[in-house]
Automatic annotation (TrEMBL):
Residues 12-39 form the Transglutaminase-like domain. SUPFAM superfamilies: Cysteine proteinases. It holds the Pfam family Transglut_core. Gene3D superfamilies: 3.10.620.30. Signal peptide: none annotated. This is Transglutaminase-like domain-containing protein. It comes from Pseudogulbenkiania ferrooxidans EGD-HP2.
Amino acid sequence: VGYQGGEYNPVGRFWQLRSSDAHAWVEVWLDGAWQRVDPTAAVSPGRLALGAEQTLPALRTESGMAAALPPQWLRRARQQWFAANFVWQQWVVGYDAERQQGLFRWLGLGERVDAASVLRALAAGMALAMMPLLLWWRRRPAEEPLPAGWEALRRRLEKRGVEAPRAQGPLERLKAARGLPRDDFNRLKALVDEYIELRYRLTAADGAREKRWLRRALRWK
C-alpha cells in the first residue's frame, strides 16, 4: 500500500498527497522474483499523474460556492492555503532541536549556540533594522529656533493662566500677559521685542542669534 498520483504545489514547491491518493497494489512471485501487478495504468492512465481527485469527480468535495469559482482560481487559492499550512507545520509544529541547529548554521552562528549567542544575534538584527529609522531621524529637517521658542512661550503662558491662542500676534500676547508679576513681564517683554526684531525686521537670517533667543525663551518661566 502507498500513494499514487498527487498534485504539485508551485507556491510551496512540494507535492500534496491526500487520503484520496492512497493506493493499493499486489506483487506476485513470478519467475523467481516479486513483480508488481497493478492494472491502474491501463484502466485509468490519468490516475498516475493527476491523482484520484482529478480523475474521479465523485471524490471532489467542493462546496456550491467553491464550485462556482473558476477552477484555476480555486486551485490557486487552495495551493496558497496548503503552502501556508505546510510552513506552519514545518516551522512551528515540527520545529525541533535539529531544525533549530540547521537555522543557526544557515545564519552562520556555528554548531553549538547558547542563549547568549542568540541574544547577541537578536540584538544585532534589531540594530540593523533600526538603522534606516536612525538615518531618517538624523536627516530630518531641523526645527526652526523662532517657531520652537515661540510655541514654548505660548505653552508656559497658558500654564500661568494667560490666554495665548496660536493665532495671537506678539503685541497682543504681550498685552494679554500684563497681569504677570513685574519681573516676569519685563523678561517676557524683552523676549517679545527681540522676537519681533528677528522675525519681522531683519532682512537676513541670523541663526546664531535665533538660537540664543531660543535658549532664553526655554528658560523663561
